[in-house]
Write a structure and sequence with these properties.
The chain has about 600 residues and is mostly helical. The chain is built from 24 helices and no strands.
Length: about 600
């Protein structure tokens, strides 16, 4: 199958028409107010926001990366996404989404005012959060942009498209050209429909992806039964020793070079660093992107927790059913695939589009392509909405025009959205590939974020000055340290970036006075975090405020532990199914059942308990 069939093109066109209609239909609702545009008016049910959030995470670039990991590392690939870390959703589910939603803020930068007030230090911290959020949003937009372009190029080769498009484009920039085309559709419905438009478009996309995943999973399951798998020893096991010990020499020798380039050979050391970094990143709370905006869009703190938990339940089984299916097909029919890029080198990121091209039948191909293209647009639109929120709410309305009319706010949303898209396209054009952007975001940029954002939740003395200098020192280190150690895997630079950020945070804290006492008391009463809040708690008691100390640290960590086990089981279960590992599959189902019972008793039943 070399090109798209007419039926496939019509299905894709129908999907694009559907999202345009959604954007137009929800335009008036989005223009009612700033809250309606950025948060859907806090009226969207948690399960729809959960589906939307899952849809945003079902992005095309991530799927390309995960299929590549599945092909190379087998069931051990279940651990590598802890780089993000994917289990941050469990921390959000158990307690952090609830804490965040209690603030009633519109963006992460606005949340800063609830924690640090509005003095000099708070203003500095507000500015640095906006800068970090915009850099992060641009990184994610470029990441999705590159993945989509590489994907579409497989199905619309430039030697065909170039006959109808009057541009003389160098082969290396063809993926970027395709990325720009589909970016325009994402911009349309996200700019017009705001958060409500994004959520409903995401729900449509997730339905498409679920159908596609079921069919791809079925095709992979049948192929494994018919042809079997030729993989190295240990490929079908999620367990590992000090070294990875996957030897592809007798099967596909080029894969060994891929493992060497990834730097995952000493897998236990890699895994330990992932867990160390992942725990700290998760405790720091959500980065200021589309995930945070979905949390702030929920109706209540309890619904915020439910939404974050629902993401893992619906996303992991569906996504990994598709990933395992494609991994199986790619392994079995590897010799049929062309993994040479335009430079004449093997590019394992081409596994997913080639597998689709070779094995997906007419009709389903159109549906699957529509789903994966919409996955890009979902991530793009959600990230764009977050970037707009920071620019309009935290710069324009705060410093430029606090009394802006609804029409002025609407126009600013449109203008900032277009500017952010243009800049992200420029960033995407100069980025090397999907993995390079991904590694920079999760290992380098997040390293600058963690120190200050852990302290903001758990240390009463931490102030706006500390937050500002912690973030500035972290961002400066993120820009400089990788250049000093170009041959070191980004993940292993995390401890150094963290240390610099923490030192900057602590030293910065003592350059300014403690946060205003009234602000601290209000924050503590509303959010009720656990941690080092004793002085604030005692002052409230001395003033006659009857307030209970949050003693849930132990039960929260227990629930996090159970939640991570459950989430990992949801990832591994579809792999066992597709690769016909019957006994491990039943054991995994038993583990999931036990985890669900424990979480129902110790987490779900306590969601609506009163603070006092």
């Amino acid at each position: 199958m070399n090109l798209l069939h007419t039926a496939d093109i019509l299905i894709i066109a129908l999907y694009l028409l559907t999202i345009i209609i959604i954007g137009l239909a929800l335009k008036k609702r989005a223009q009612r107010s700033k809250e309606d545009y950025l948060l859907g008016g806090n009226r969207i049910p948690w399960y729809l926001l959960g589906l939307s959030n899952a849809s945003g995470m079902f992005d095309i670039s991530g799927t390309i990366w995960l299929v590549t990991l599945m092909f190379v590392y087998g069931l051990k690939s279940a651990w590598i996404p802890w780089l993000w870390p994917i289990f941050n959703q469990v921390f959000l589910m158990i307690y952090l989404s609830k804490w965040l939603r209690r603030s009633g803020a519109t963006t992460g930068a606005e949340w800063i005012g609830t924690r640090f007030g509005f003095a000099k230090g708070a203003k500095l911290s507000h500015v640095i959060v906006v800068i970090f959020a915009l850099v992060l949003c641009l990184g994610f937009l470029a990441y999705g942009f590159i993945g989509l372009g590489k994907f579409v190029e497989i199905f619309i080769p430039w030697e065909v498209a170039g006959k109808y498009i009057p541009f003389n484009i160098s082969p290396e920039f063809v993926p970027h050209f395709y990325g720009i085309i589909f970016t325009f559709f994402a911009v349309f419905y996200s700019l017009l429909g705001g958060m409500s438009g994004i959520v409903w478009a995401d729900v449509v996309q997730f339905a498409i992806m679920t159908v596609s995943a079921l069919v791809i999973g079925y095709l992979g399951f049948i192929a494994v039964g018919k042809y079997g798998l030729n993989v190295p020893d240990g490929w079908l096991s999620p367990f590992f020793g000090w070294e990875l010990n996957l030897d592809w020499s007798e099967i596909i020798p080029e894969v060994n070079q891929k493992i060497k380039e990834d730097g995952f050979s000493l897998f236990t050391a890699f895994f330990m660093m992932m867990v160390f970094k992942g725990m700290l990143v998760s405790i720091a709370g959500p980065a200021p992107n589309y995930d945070m905006q979905k949390i702030l869009s929920t109706k209540s703190p309890a619904e915020a927790s439910k939404m974050s938990g629902f993401v893992s339940v619906v996303l992991m089984p569906v996504r990994y059913l598709m990933i395992a299916g494609f991994g199986a097909l790619a392994l079995i029919f590897y010799e049929k695939m062309d993994l040479m890029n335009t430079s004449g080198q093997i590019d394992f990121e081409l596994i997913l589009p080639n597998a689709i091209k070779e094995f997906v039948p007419i009709g389903l191909l159109g549906l699957l392509l529509a789903g994966l293209i919409s996955a890009f647009m979902s991530t793009f639109a959600g990230t764009l909405n977050a970037a707009q929120a920071y620019i309009v709410n935290d710069i324009y309305l705060k410093y430029k025009n606090p009394r802006a009319t609804s029409k002025q706010i609407k126009n600013m949303n449109y203008i900032t959205g277009i500017l952010v898209v243009i800049v992200s396209i420029i960033v995407g054009v100069f980025a090397k590939d999907v993995n390079s952007v991904l590694q920079w975001i999760v290992s380098v940029l997040y390293g600058s974020y963690v120190g200050a954002n852990i302290l903001k939740w758990h240390w009463w003395r931490f102030n706006g000055e500390g937050f500002f200098w912690g973030m500035v020192s972290g961002l400066a280190a993120a820009a400089i340290i990788p250049e000093l150690f170009p041959n070191v895997l980004s993940l292993y630079l995390f401890p150094l970036l963290l240390l610099i950020s923490v030192i900057g945070s602590v030293l910065g804290t003592y350059t300014g006075p403690p946060t205003d006492e009234k602000v601290l008391k209000t924050f503590y009463v509303n959010v009720r975090p656990w941690g080092f809040w004793k002085p604030v708690h005692n002052k409230l008691l001395n003033e006659g405020t009857l307030i209970k100390k949050n003693t849930d640290f132990g039960i929260d960590m227990f629930n996090v532990f159970i939640g991570v086990i459950a989430q990992t089981a949801f990832v591994i279960l579809p792999m066992y199914l597709i690769f016909r590992q019957t006994t491990p599959m039943y054991i995994t189902l038993l583990v999931i059942t036990i985890c669900v019972i424990l979480l129902k008793k110790y987490w779900w039943n306590s969601l609506n308990k009163k603070l006092d």
